[in-house]
Amino acid sequence: MLELFSALLGFAAPFLPECVKYFQRKQDNAHELDMLRLQIEKGSQEHLWRADEIRLEGEMKADEAETKVIYNQPSSFGVQMLDAAKGQNLSPWILYPAFMLYVLVDAMSAAVRPGITYAAFGFYMAVKWAELSIARANASCLSAALLNVWGQEDRAIVILVLSYWFGHRASKAAFGGSAMTSKAGA
């Protein structure tokens, strides 16, 4: 039996390197096909990545333009009217009352948000004063009355307001220029 096995092995031995080469080539070809598939996928992914990059650049430019429009101070309508009337040779007696009217309208328009803010703060302070007056009548000293009036909600409000204003300064300094000048790059 050993002779038969050695004869078969002796007969097959010259074919063994060719079989190994065949399987090696088959494995190399499969590897090459996998590499080509990966390159094709990479190419299609690069195309998608580039498309996403282009889309994001467009969105960023649109956001930047929107931010500029939002934060630009509108020019006064009275100033626009004077600029338009400059070449018309109109009498100052006609322009002055209209200009003053638009100055008044612009001032009232600019005072809306601060006015609402001051009114809300005034109402808050009036309520706190009333609470303090009641607490003062029931407490032995002013310190105890203040501690009874000042609660967790009040601390939350103060922290909210302070963090908003200081966060706004930090964001201007980090993303939009100096916190002192609000000019980009300053």
Which features does this protein show?
186 residues, mainly alpha
Secondary-structure map:
Layout: H1 2-12, H2 16-71, H3 77-85, H4 92-110, H5 112-138, H6 142-149, H7 152-175
Helix pairs in contact: 3-4, 5-6
Classification by helices and strands: mainly alpha
Helix-residue proportion: over 70%
* Strands, count: 0
For the sheet with most strands, the description reads:
none
Order of helices and strands: HHHHHHH
Rg from C-alpha positions?
40 Å
Cα distance spanning the termini: 95 Å
The percentage of residues in β strands lies in under 5%
Question: How many helices in DSSP terms?
Answer: 7
Q: Which shape, going by the Cα principal axes?
A: elongated
Taking all residues together, what is the mean pLDDT? Answer: 76
Low-confidence spans: none
Report what the structure shows.
The chain is mainly alpha-helical. Among the domains are: 1-72; 74-110, no CATH class. The protein is built from seven helices and no strands. It has helices at 2-12, 16-71, 77-85, 92-110, 112-138, 142-149, 152-175. The mean pLDDT is 76.
